[in-house]
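In this notation, each integer encodes one residue's backbone shape. One such record reads:

___
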Amino acid sequence: MPVTIEKIEQGRSLREFVQLPYELYQGDGNWVPPLRMDEKRKLDRSKHPFWLHAEGEIYLARREGRAVGRMVALVDRQWEKANKEKAAAWGWFECANDPEAAAALFESAKAFGRARGCTRLVGPMSPNPSDLIGTQIAGFEGSPVIMMPYNPAYHDELIQGCGNRKWKDLVAWLLPDNELPERLAKIMPRIEARGGFTIRKINMKEFDREVERFQAIYNDFERVNELYTEATDEEVVQLAKDLRPAVDPDMIFFVEVEGKVVAACLCLPDMNVALKAAYGRLFPFGIFRMLAARKNIHLARVLSMGVSKDYRNRGIDLAMYYYCYKYAVQKGYYAGEMSWVEEDNAAMTNTAIKLGGQPYRKYRVYEQEL
């Protein structure tokens, strides 16, 4: 039987869309089930702030009536603004090892983009670079860390078989040692004094104000990445709300020069350990399983780190990583992940090397002309 594509909105088909990975990854102990309620909220075009500046279509691929693949096609005005191009994107891609189903999904996404005057198709982004991005192509041992993707190894072949080619590779760096290089501890006071900056932890009593401070510089330092869209006020507020339960105040830092915030570092415990225990549902028992599993979290991820343009080359980036790593070790985390880093970002790569990092996972973003 041929593959058919269903364009879906809400109701039963959307539930099938959210449920499909649970069927495809059955028996895969590395997969981390997302919370179903979070997935539905992100896909709700009347509620999630991403859709205030984007439009999209949700597709389900069926063979003999059974769901075998899924995808969302997107056009994001924030992407167009940042990159000065009319491009469509694709995300939420899951598929059985079925080239016909994958091809049908990509044909739907390409038709969506062409109908809106787009000249390029990029992805995966679910829904943009500030959330899940990339297809894993190397380092499949173990589960992904918080807000990093995971997929079967055959995805790369399926995706390339549909006319996509590499655009950007993203690297995850592992800091496996709980001993910082001794020389960094010795030179850090000199780096701070010479750079004229001070570093402090987040003040949770002023959480909303701290979010505003972070937001004020986030778009500035993220522009160094080619994979970038400007985060709106609503998106930053939503992200802060989503991540607050995972926050460890000893591992989020602000850097100030003469009282002005010029850099920030967002490091989070790997809550995927707890999410795996919940298996997609908070209620009735998932939340208790998550709380019990938190004691097994021993890895942290540096999710976002950057320095405002006018304050770079002062050693601020190295200082933030140093203190993040230092306090994480004190709290019992024996490893850290710096992710993601664009493979051609020499500055961040050099910082990872100085901290003793090892490149251990790789993710790919694809493109094709329309």
